[in-house]
Write a structure and sequence with these properties.
By secondary structure, the protein is an alpha/beta fold. It folds into two domains: 197 residues, D-Maltodextrin-Binding Protein, domain 2; 134 residues, D-Maltodextrin-Binding Protein, domain 2. The protein is 45% helix and 16% strand. A six-stranded mixed beta sheet has the order 2-1-3-10-4-11, with helices on both faces. A three-stranded antiparallel beta sheet has the order 8-5-9. A two-stranded parallel ribbon has the order 6-7. Helix 3 packs antiparallel against helix 14 and helix 7 runs antiparallel to helix 12. The longest helix is centred in the C-terminal third of the chain and has 15 residues.
């Protein structure tokens, strides 16, 4: 009997204590998902559906709630997650992955090392396109190219697709553009476009499709260009920026400043220093949620696409971004810095 007890205690001593505590940690807890965009936008829509399903994929079945923390092109949310949130695994969130490029380029307002974030994952890799309201008088790319006055493009600010992609298109395709920045989310930009304040904006088709559905269906909203090298299956008749850029440098600029950050636009991350065992549970829970049949059914109903990256894959993409050629960095900084 004594030998059996000894062997039992010996076997338990080989179970990592952190793993045991992590398994119990989330029981009865609430995890906050901090969303850098406004309610009704793409970041918010993905996050709320994830919140409804992720708890069952984390040991202890915690509750998940969404908190919108808007402003400064999602920098407020990013800064909060980086330095204000406790590194306890009870908060993670989404900010615009274009901020990572902004940090590479040394832009103002990004005074923290984004490489230190703990990466949870990405639910979908963005396919950026520009959608304009017909009230602007621009319904296709030719009309944009020949516009007598700069076309007003709404944006959150620099450091995200709404701010960076139009600037890149303007520089590489000589499109007449007037940036109107300061919106708190793409939902606010849509409202502004519907009201004639701006013509439209450039951001992920994966957000445009489910959130501007009525305008697309009625023909009030038109997608006029894709800032990509390959057409989205939904947009086979819409021109590709890469087909129109005539020189290799222009293509490199759009690739480094648009395509690469667009893969991690919807990045979910948490505070540096979060215990590794809890981090693993969050990463696994996130990945399993994206495979969950009930989640997929709700995502499809909301017209949301799923094309994920794991936390490890995000880390590799971020590392690649920080290895952009110095000459290209200088040119990107010139283009993307607000005048």
């Amino acid at each position: 009997m004594k030998i059996a007890i000894f062997l039992l205690l010996l076997s338990l001593s080989f179970v990592p204590s952190g793993a045991v505590f992590a398994q119990d940690f989330y029981a009865g807890k609430t995890i906050r998902i901090i969303v850098g965009g406004s309610a009704g936008g793409g970041f918010d829509t993905y996050s709320r559906i994830i919140a409804r399903h992720m708890g069952k994929h984390i040991p202890g079945n915690p509750n998940l709630v969404v908190e919108n923390m808007t402003g400064a092109g999602t920098r407020i949310a990013a800064k909060y997650l980086f330095s204000a949130a406790q590194p306890d695994g009870l908060a993670f969130g989404i900010f615009n992955g274009y901020l990572l490029l902004g940090r590479v380029l040394g832009m103002k307002g990004l005074d923290f090392d984004v490489r230190k974030f703990e990466w949870v994952g990405v639910p979908v890799q963005d396919h950026v396109a520009c959608a304009l309201h017909k009230a602007s008088g621009v319904t296709n790319l030719k009309e944009w190219q020949s516009a007598k006055a700069p076309v007003k493009i709404g944006a959150l600010g620099p450091g995200n697709s709404t701010g960076d992609v139009p600037r890149l298109l303007g520089a590489t395709l000589n499109l007449p553009i007037q940036m109107v920045e300061g919106y708190k989310g793409t939902a606010d930009i849509r409202i502004a476009a519907d009201g004639g304040e701006v013509a439209g904006a450039c951001w992920a088709w994966q957000s445009i499709k489910p959130t501007w559905t009525k305008g697309l269906q009625t023909g009030d909203v038109n997608v006029v260009i894709q800032a990509t090298a390959k057409a989205h299956p939904d947009l086979t008749k819409v021109p590709l920026a890469f087909d129109l850029i005539k020189n290799e440098e222009g293509k490199q600029l759009l690739r480094a400043g648009g395509l690469l950050p667009s893969t991690v636009t919807r990045v979910y991350a948490t505070t540096p220093g979060t215990p590794k065992d809890r981090m693993k549970l969050l990463q696994n829970g996130f990945s399993e949620t994206l495979k969950d049949k009930a989640f997929i059914a709700e995502a499809e109903k909301a017209k949301l696409e799923i094309d994920p990256l794991t936390g490890e894959e995000v880390a590799k993409a971020v590392a690649e971004m920080f290895n952009i050629d110095e000459g290209l960095k200088t040119k990107l900084k010139t283009i993307l810095t607000p005048k």
